Amino acid sequence: MTQTLNIVGGGLAGSEAAWQAARAGAKVVLHEMRPATGTFAHQTGKLAEMVCSNSFRSDDDEQNAVGLLHWEMRQAGGLIMSMADAHRLPAGGALAVDREAFSAAVTEKLIHHPNITLQTTELKNLPGDGSWIIATGPLTSAPLGEALRAETGAEALAFFDAIAPIVYADSIDMEKAWFQSRYDKGETPQERTAYLNCPMDRDQYEAFIDALLAADKTEFHAGETAGYFNGCLPIEVMAERGRETLRHGPMKPVGLTNPHQPQVKPHAVVQLRRDNALGTLFNIVGFQTKMKYGAQAAVFKMIPGLENARFARLGGIHRNTFLNAPTLLDDRLRLKSRPNLRFAGQITGVEGYVESAAMGLLAGRLAVAEMQGRTLPPIPHVTATGALLHHITGGADAKSFQPMNVNFGLFPPVEGLRGGRRGRRDRYKAYTDRAKAAWLEWLAA
Predict the structure, then answer these.
(1) Residue 10, marked binder
(2) What is the CATH architecture of 4-156+323-444?
(3) Which CATH number fits domain 162-319: 2.40.30.260, 2.30.110.10, 3.30.70.260, 1.10.150.120?
(4) Integer Cα distance of 258 and 261 in angstroms
(5) Which partner for 95 in 36, 55, 59, 167 could form a disulfide, CB atoms 3.0-4.6 Å apart?
(6) 127: preceding bond cis by omega (within 30 degrees)
(7) Burial of 223 by CB count in 10 Å (0-12 exposed, 13-18 middle, 19+ buried)?
(8) 314 and 296 Cβ atoms separated by less than 8 Å
(9) Tens-digit pLDDT profile for the chain (445 aa)?
(10) For the chain, the helix, strand and coil percentages under 3-state DSSP, each to the nearest 5
């Protein structure tokens, strides 16, 4: 195979696509504009840098759709999952990683692969020929974004994604906070104590909400609109939807007992999750924000246990772009008007680290098969990977298309199973059993 596969973007999707293609024998040129050209959200020039969080979410492959996606990627020899497993941190039932070690490991694997060449170049125009995968993610550069709009004849959709703050562990008051995973979830003592909890009584919660609503916020530039993805809503936007919204969301007090005051039920609880293997950094779970930096520090120090918090990183907000994939892409992730261009990752309209990497895995495999003159069988819709692909390339309504995490609502129903909450456990197990069998069959083909 003499043809070269060019991949633009060294995030999770581009990194996974490069790995899959190189393992299949293709020569790959991976184009990543960092560190020569940076973004306001990235902090390093490493590949697969995790910007917003260090969590890949649930690792339960029997009762959770994202855990099933983890399983499928592992079965396919995914680089992202193998490096996540190698650098995982205690996080209850979730898969969280030491993000710096994870990114460094992915970078080392790719730059030392004999079939991969890394070029720190910025693609500003759409290439005319050759085989390409565009995996530039939600922070696609302005010149390439303009080239895409010119090619598609349609405006790329946009939403705002917010980043949660990170706190130094030694600045947290452990006379007020305590370690516990909700409902003591996890198989080991480390897993069952993976989260730091900061309790609030009713008065503290009400004062916190007042301060949150009154805080100075980042203003939008002309022409930008605040079309947030519901899975990454800034905390102050959630508060604007109702004073109790946070108590039923990231600050819910259920499944936790404060050992400092075991007889007192907290009115609300703020959770922090370990952000590195050393345990020196913790991110505030679900606290993405668009407050200005000064306001963030003042408001977050109202949280009991964080009065003297020092922040390794404050929250932020950035504009995410994605294609109207149901209109523009075919079921092989190719741009209908330019079939030599494939797309992968968040720019396709999937949301989440794992979902983005999964689309990179597919794009890499599909591209190599095409270069080798092979046609892979259709990806089964009953798998997590196939359900996502089907959603973004035809299952979703193009008029109202929005970024989507993997979830069982995207799967074809299993006939004869009980509906409702009471039948959910059996139903989810049936989904995952069916998906695993279909995915292994697809991989074997």
Answers:
(1) yes
(2) 3-Layer(bba) Sandwich (3.50)
(3) 2.40.30.260
(4) 5
(5) 59
(6) no
(7) exposed
(8) yes
(9) 568 999 999 999 999 999 999 999 999 999 998 866 666 556 677 999 998 789 999 999 999 999 999 999 999 999 999 999 999 999 999 999 999 999 999 999 999 999 999 999 888 889 989 999 999 987 788 788 888 888 887 665 565 666 789 999 999 999 999 999 999 998 899 889 999 999 999 999 999 999 999 999 877 654 455 566 666 688 998 999 999 999 999 999 999 999 999 999 999 999 999 887 778 889 999 898 889 999 999 999 999 999 999 998 888 776 677 888 999 999 999 999 999 999 999 999 898 999 999 999 999 999 999 999 999 999 999 999 999 999 999 888 887 787 888 999 899 888 877 666 667 889 999 999 999 999 999 999 9
(10) 40, 20, 45
The residue ranges of every structural domain in the chain are 4-156+323-444, 162-319
The tokens of 207 are what?
A: 């004062």
Is 9 assigned to a binding site?
yes
The residue written with tokens 């973007």 in the block is: 9
Tokens matching residue 168: 């130094």
